[in-house]
User: Which sequence fits this backbone?
């Protein structure tokens, strides 16, 4: 079973701009697996809620080693003032998705 926690998001407004959105969490990924955050396509109708997919790749047909704590992150320059980030995955059991508030640094 894959477990992810400690999600956070912040938007750095410091000059010279554009701002940079940082999203990160920690996942216990079985040995040999990888995870990444990518934009969901298409995005939803709420333009201030960034939709992301947590994509997990596992080696096929190999013995699965114990989980390894791995930081999963996305960094993106954007002018959009996101207020939330929603992360979904078909592999990780995190309910219907995780919604986190974006912190803003000026």
Assistant:
């Amino acid at each position: 079973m894959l477990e992810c926690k400690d999600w956070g998001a912040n938007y750095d407004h410091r000059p010279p701009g554009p701002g940079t959105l940082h999203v990160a969490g920690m996942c216990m990924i079985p040995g040999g697996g990888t995870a990444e955050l990518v934009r969901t396509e298409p995005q939803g109708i709420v333009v201030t809620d960034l939709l992301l997919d947590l994509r997990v790749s596992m080696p096929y047909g190999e013995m699965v080693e114990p989980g390894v704590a791995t930081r999963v992150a996305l960094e993106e320059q954007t002018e959009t003032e996101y207020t939330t980030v929603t992360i979904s995955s078909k592999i990780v059991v995190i309910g219907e998705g995780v919604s986190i508030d974006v912190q803003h640094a000026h």
Observations:
- The chain is about 0% helix and 55% strand.
- The first strand starts at residue 3 and ends at 12.
